Amino acid sequence: MEDNKKFLKGFLGGVLSAVVVISLVLFIYKYTGADLKVASLVQNVSGSEVEEVGSTLTGTKIDVIKQIIDKYYLEDVDEADLVEGMYKGLVNGLGDPYSVYYTEDEFKSMMESTNGVYYGIGVTVSQNADTGIITLVKPFENGPGFEAGILPGDILYKVDGTEVTGMELSTVVAMIKGEEGTTVDLTIVREGESDELNLTVERRQIEVPTISYEVLEGNVGYIAIAEFDTVTESQFISALEELNNQGVDGLVVDLRDNPGGNLDVVNSILDQILPEGLIVYTEDKYGNKDEYKSDEAHQFNKPLAVLINGNSASASEIFAGAVKDYGIGTLVGTKTFGKGIVQRLIELGDGTAMKLTISKYYTPNGYNIHGIGIEPDVELELDDSLRTQAVIAHDEDNQLQKALEIINQKLGR
Known about the structure:
By secondary structure, this protein is of the alpha+beta class. The protein contains ten helices and 22 strands.
């Protein structure tokens, strides 16, 4: 019964969220066959007059609410917005911040980002599931957000004058994106600043830099993975192959501020590193398990270190968890975010889609870290002076330097 109430609450909440109901409506109703007997008191905006309405309305409660909106709501109503709001409310009623209904525009925008190219401001964002606060985690170097002065850790308060705290993250991202050459006004809150900051940022074509790599001092390879998107698998394989061709003695994989991404992609990448065996497994509410395994064709047998922090989530934690369980590398940094659940993207056939939480994932040793996170082997906070820097020089990065120190120790240097 509680589940039914919660489900209905979400369904109706979506309808009501699509409009601002300015009248106070008190319902006393009962069902007689298919008819809903309604006696209602409707108070107007001024509160000075009360109209008593007695009528018999046929249909469901949704029909009744719709008729009341049509009769009393002050402004014009877009029927399509009401319907989309209803669908969103239905999914919101689950109370799961990771289950989302996408309108056609939102779905298109999300798929563009996943495929690695979109028009926007070039900033990674995240949302606190408890508070609804949206954080600008990191601007892409030389992107429009970076050029406008956005710093890591800035709190996004408004987009074009609309407060966005608590809004679904994909909706906010869709508000920020737009046509190339247009601008978006952002209001941000920054630690240490007493006043809000207003930034106007030009939208440009953004190619998501999911992979960057280089050879560091001491002949140690370095691969930073920003997200696990569709394009990331081939980019990682190419980067690792190039580093191996250059004869690196060890490898640092940087997953800091990586919010996750595609489950299949992270498993394919781990297949290039792990020995033969289980990478991760998922389990749904019926107890059905899906196992993802690595084969013996590829594995990385040189010293390995993985950088993690509190913004390393989901697929990043699958990566870190597998490395830790197999004992093939050292995790350096701070405890990860703690998202141990899997979502499936389901297209609905009309250009819209929904993302739904369908299972939990478990590391090779059977740990589910949802709400817990993964502890590093070597705990080390990033220096305070570096936390708001958009770009950190390698020689100043104390976490990276610790990872290099560990690799050099393993090499006997």
